[in-house]
Fold this protein.
Amino acid sequence: MKVLNIGSLNIDRVYEVEHFVKPGETIKTTHYSEACGGKGLNQSIALARSGAEVYHVGAVGADGGMLLDVLKTSGVHTEGVRILPGASGHAVIQVDVSGQNNIIICGGANDSVSKEMIDEAVKKIETGDIVLFQNEISNVGYAVRAAKEAGAKVALNPSPINENLASIPMDLVDYFLVNEIEGKEISGAETEEPGIVMEGLKKKFPNAAVVLTLGDKGSWYFDRGKCIRQEIYKVKTVDTTAAGDTFCGYFLSGITKNMEMHEILKTASAASAIAVSKKGAAPSIPTYEEVEEFLKENQ
């Protein structure tokens, strides 16, 4: 079983600041760096570093060599990534002294993922494979339908929340990976309270499995037959940028390995704990060996 990730590829431009800039305010960064990111890239790297077989489908601009390099060195198959005219997608990220972040995204080449590229990619699908999506590229709705018709299981991390979500046939999704904000939006709940969000998602998507990530409150998994809660592993938070993406990659990797669900959640939680203890997006994502060692030390 393999994972096809039809997703974004971004260059992250990270500005460390004392506090997030306010309207009308000018502040000076305490440190600047560039790194590879984008939810698609982060999740592909998490999948690969956790031991899954993963193929990335997407697009970069002429400046995207560093993005292809980090995918390849992490073990991701990149034959499905096109190099297009113009700039790669990029993100402007503020990280404050507590490790929290806010992000502005420029789509770049991610907005030029065509139906033709998707049609070519889904030819690689075998029955039972997982196709993973976020909401940072063009033609996601078309790609979800194409993946399902090809016999894949569909996993969706519906981020960022915007009007494009309306074009995605969510009734075709097998696995939702959402935080409380995303869960509230797609469930139609009137509050972000986890229990209410969970019940709303169960009612609206009764055939799907859902992972609800809740930051320092841990995570919940539920499907038609079970509900499991997983606490976080407490570490010093340095940068939360790729925590959710790391959890997502390790979760789906566990599915491909036919692991028990409680073990999947434990491993994904440990991986995301390691990620938040390091700076950066892709650079913070741990290998499976690092996660195993962490779990031994945190029984």
About this structure: The longest strand covers residues 10-16.
